Amino acid sequence: MPNLSFREWSFAHRLAGVVMAAIALFTFPGPVIAVAGKVVREADVPLMTVDGPLYIVRQPRTGRVSVHLIFGYSAPPHEMHYVEHLVWLNVTGATGDRRDSNAWTTRHAVGYWLSGSSGELAEMLHTLAGVFAPIRLSERFAAQERDIILRERELRMAMHPDLRIAWKMETFLYAGTPLAVPVIGTPEEIRNLDIRNARTLHAATHRPERASLVIVGDVTPEMVHLAMTRAGFPDLGKAVRNGLPRLHLKRPVERLFRFRESNLRLVWRRAVTLSKPVQYDLLEARCALLREILRSNLPGGLAGPLLYDGMLVRNFDIRIRAVDERHVELRFDAAPDGKVSLRQLRGAFEKRLAETAATGIPQRTFERVRKRFDAYWPDWGNRRETSEWLGRYVLRRASALRRPMKVAELRRLRRNLAGAALDDLLKELAAPGRTAIAHVEPGGNPDDPNPHSAACLYGSHCRKRGGSSDRQP
User: Fold this and answer.
1) Is the domain of 20 the same as that of 61?
2) Which of 141, 405, 449, 457 is 20 to 30 Å apart from 226, CA to CA?
């Protein structure tokens, strides 16, 4: 093969596809593509392909592609966040790549991505392969990046004041698990970051056999494999993943937190351990459907007794999250109406939740909301809508170190959304669990920091000043 540049090779490959498609124009009805050297109908090629650690989602006729490289890890999150910064600067600084790109870190995974035109796939893979290379930044540069992370933390706290509330509640709800630890870390932890430790952590985690590769766009599996070869992308092998750690919640207990802010509101969060595990995709769908029911003004919902009829709240929201196959979190946020106190609002919510759990969701309510719930999944007969949905779905699952379900399995999930299963889920959420309640009230002297101000969010003196209280449910 002549020594072509990435752009020359990409152009030649695309030109060959155009020629093959032109030859087959009058042979096949509808759009055609080349697969394994043959011309086939585009509609006959699956939209999603899973090949070990390689996930490909086709989005035909968009002309665009995004490439995502993901690694699991079990180190302290703030250390991996620092590694992520250094690695991506190491890569993009070396290549001068100016495409849309980014990098991210969660409590269990780190990822890097690029997007561009489909013809640039090999170039993007070549750039992403640099993630595996050793970090060669200077110690001085790495120290500057450490200061940038400190400013990033300050900016987050300023722009999202609810973060300090969320971190405090999660530290209690998920004590002893990775979910209790903020990804960005404390100021002290950030100042102690060291490039030598970062290089060691990078070498241990950013390895081909630990990676997953997600490619979403106007490509075929054949194009992807050819581009990987052309780019010299390393063989991912069987990809030994760092799966999600097994979660164990501490004993059910309730803790009340008090915060001082301008807006009066209640934040109520409960994490429970289910009596038996449920397949994650099914559990996530049940949580989403139950949320829609509880947010409704139908019998069994909360909008009537709290908002429209009871006039206890000015606004509220419900969120139900499948943490994993055995754990679910229920969250209720509300601003009280008139002279309703936070304690009264909390009591009314808990009472209504217990009543609905005891009597069950009315069948007519379940049927009405379930009909609207079809929009949770795509119109499986619409290939464009399905491909867009699958792109988001596969990326979410890979980023969470989970295996995506096959399309046929996803299409069968709806039949398992029975009312009895939702009743069981609601009963477990209404039962005693690990519960964090935040009363957010106006007031406080800005010159005299309250016990939960950002300045002492991590200080042991917060507990001594009576900022929270525990009680058994």
Assistant:
1) no
2) 405
H or E element that contains 237: none
Q: Report the pLDDT averaged over residues 166-182.
A: 95
- Provide the residue type at 257 as one letter: F
Q: Give residues with Cβ within 8 angstroms of 431, minimum separation 6.
A: 272, 357
Burial of 174 (0-12, 13-18, 19+ CB in 10 A): buried
Tell me how far the alpha carbon of residue 346 is from its chain's centroid: 29
Rounded mean pLDDT, 440-445: 74
Cβ neighbourhood burial of 160 (10 Å; 0-12, 13-18, 19+): exposed
What is the per-residue pLDDT for 241?
Answer: 63
Mean pLDDT lowest among 187-191, 286-290, 305-309, 453-457: 453-457
In the predicted model, is pLDDT for residue 345 greater than 60?
yes
The pTM is what? 0.83
- How many whole angstroms separate alpha carbon 51 and alpha carbon 221? 9
Residue recorded with tokens 């002297």 = 445
One domain for residues 227 and 210: yes
Query: Does residue 236 form part of some domain?
Result: no
Dig out the tokens for 405 from the structure. 């379900």
Phi/psi at 384 (nearest 5 deg)?
Answer: -65, -50
